[in-house]
């Protein structure tokens, strides 16, 4: 880890802040299921890019913030995002050699697991979705993965975060 | 894995421990800046629209509002007489309390992003006297109740959420029922209405005041559909909420207190 790495913490924090804002941005009712899982997307990017810095504990902390923002049961997103970070840590070497759309498929799986865990907790507290529509945010996230990846990679290289 | 266990502990603590409510209320203040920033574009647009309006449009709007104000004042005069009469009649019947409600104007600054839950965020909190369980209205009817009061923001559960139910009565004949949210913003369902009950399409449902949570007499919904299936034990009654649940921005928080105690 170089000095540039220690300085890069603000960039990681800033990308998560933007993801939080996008996660609560009001959408019309008919679009509400189409909101991609921004926070999980950004988290997956940083875990794959910097597995030695962003890991399960960071994911847990980010998840707690998301819970507070959404007013969800505390720990719901923390649980889901920790598991996603754990899986991403296990997968990152393979993920890096895939092309963009293969990566998107894996990201869809990861986001789907995230949604599934969130749904489990929600249904345990009796207010989840009734149909498979809860996978919609995962699908949107996977479609946006190439764009997110390219944008975040540009930022990371410009500011030499490693 | 340790973190998963930690998360599960947090979930169960949040669900089971009452002390967590205080923690949550404090934590929800953290969410305020995010909702505030996200709300900024629409606020700037609103400001821009008001500032850049032409003089004639403003004058027109002024005239319209003055006319509306006059009309409402006229109705209030009539109301005053009716209220006095009502107090006298209540006194004759030896009934005790009449309710007069104080309100606080609040602004909606955010919607909880999870589409499975119908909650909104308001810009008033416990500092302004908001408390958990406080009813929320808009100009047309009841919207919901406060479920979490932070210092500067509060979270409101709408009447259409699947976890919400509200005691109502038919304004026409006083028939009581429970209106439950079914997770759709444009629909409520009445629970356990007998097939023979006198309820029709177009009936106005108002709060009944039973349950001690909502003050009596505020409009909740209009009956949209009544299905009497002989094979079912109860009639299926659907109603459309009167309040503009997904459009209202300026809302009223109601303080319920008893005044005018009579013998």
What features would you describe in this structure?
The complex is a heterodimer of chains A (162) and B (263). Chain A has 162 residues and is mainly α. Chain A is built from seven helices and no strands. Chain A has one domain. Chain A is 73% helix and 0% strand. Chain B folds into two domains: 44 residues; 167 residues, Rod shape-determining protein MreC, domain 1 (Thrombin, subunit H, Beta Barrel), CATH 2.40.10. Chain B is built from three helices and twelve strands. In chain B, a hairpin with a 7-residue loop joins strand 1 and strand 2. The longest helix of chain B has 38 residues. The C terminus of chain B is likely disordered.
List keywords for this structure.
heterodimer, A: 162 residues, mainly alpha, 7 helices, 0% strand, disordered N terminus, B: 263 residues, alpha+beta, Thrombin, subunit H, globular
Number of strands of chain B: 12
Physical arrangement of strands within the biggest beta sheet of chain B: 1-2-5-4-3-12
**Assembly type of the shown chains?**
heterodimer
What is the gyration radius of chain B calculated from CA atoms?
22 Å
Largest sheet of chain A: none
Report the end-to-end length of chain B measured between terminal Cα atoms: 66 Å
Task: Specify the structural class of chain B.
Answer: alpha+beta
How many DSSP-defined strands of chain A?
0
Shape of chain A: globular
């Amino acid at each position: 880890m170089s000095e540039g790495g220690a300085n890069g913490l603000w960039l990681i924090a800033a990308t998560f802040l933007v993801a939080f804002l996008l996660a609560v941005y009001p959408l019309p009712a008919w679009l509400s299921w189409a909101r991609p899982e921004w926070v999980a997307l950004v988290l997956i990017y940083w875990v794959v890019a910097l597995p030695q810095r962003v890991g399960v504990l960071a994911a847990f902390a980010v998840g707690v913030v998301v819970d507070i923002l959404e007013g969800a049961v505390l720990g719901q997103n923390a649980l889901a995002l920790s598991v996603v970070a754990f899986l991403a840590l296990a997968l990152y070497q393979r993920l890096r050699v895939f092309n963009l759309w293969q990566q998107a498929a894996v990201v869809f799986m990861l986001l789907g697991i995230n949604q599934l865990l969130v749904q489990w907790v929600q249904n345990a507290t009796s207010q989840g979705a009734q149909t498979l529509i809860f996978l919609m945010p995962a699908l949107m996230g996977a479609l946006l993965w190439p764009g997110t990846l390219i944008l975040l990679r540009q930022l990371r290289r410009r500011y030499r975060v490693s | 894995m340790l973190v998963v266990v930690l998360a599960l502990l947090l979930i169960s603590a949040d669900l089971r421990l009452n002390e967590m409510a205080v923690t949550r209320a404090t934590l929800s203040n953290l969410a305020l800046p995010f909702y505030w920033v996200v709300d900024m574009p629409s606020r700037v647009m609103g400001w821009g629209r008001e500032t850049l309006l032409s003089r004639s449009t403003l004058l027109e709007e002024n005239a319209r509002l003055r006319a509306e104000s006059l009309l409402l004042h006229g109705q209030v005069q009539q109301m005053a007489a009716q209220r006095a009469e009502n107090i006298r009649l209540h006194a004759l019947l030896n009934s005790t309390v009449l309710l007069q409600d104080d309100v606080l104007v609040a602004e909606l600054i955010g919607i909880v992003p999870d589409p499975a839950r119908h909650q909104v965020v308001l810009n008033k909190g416990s500092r302004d006297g908001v408390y958990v369980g406080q009813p929320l209205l808009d100009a047309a009817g009841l919207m919901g109740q406060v479920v979490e009061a932070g210092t500067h923001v509060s979270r409101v559960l709408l009447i259409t959420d699947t976890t919400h139910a509200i005691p109502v009565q038919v304004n026409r004949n006083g028939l009581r029922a429970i209106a439950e949210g079914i997770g759709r913003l444009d629909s409520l369902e009445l629970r356990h209405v007998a097939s023979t009950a006198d309820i029709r399409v177009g009936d106005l449902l108002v709060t009944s005041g039973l349950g001690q949570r909502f003050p009596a007499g505020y409009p909740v919904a209009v009956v949209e559909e009544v299905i009497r299936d002989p094979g079912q034990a109860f009639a299926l009654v659907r109603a459309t909420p009167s309040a503009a649940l997904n459009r209202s921005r300026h809302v009223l928080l109601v303080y319920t207190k008893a005044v005018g105690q009579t013998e």
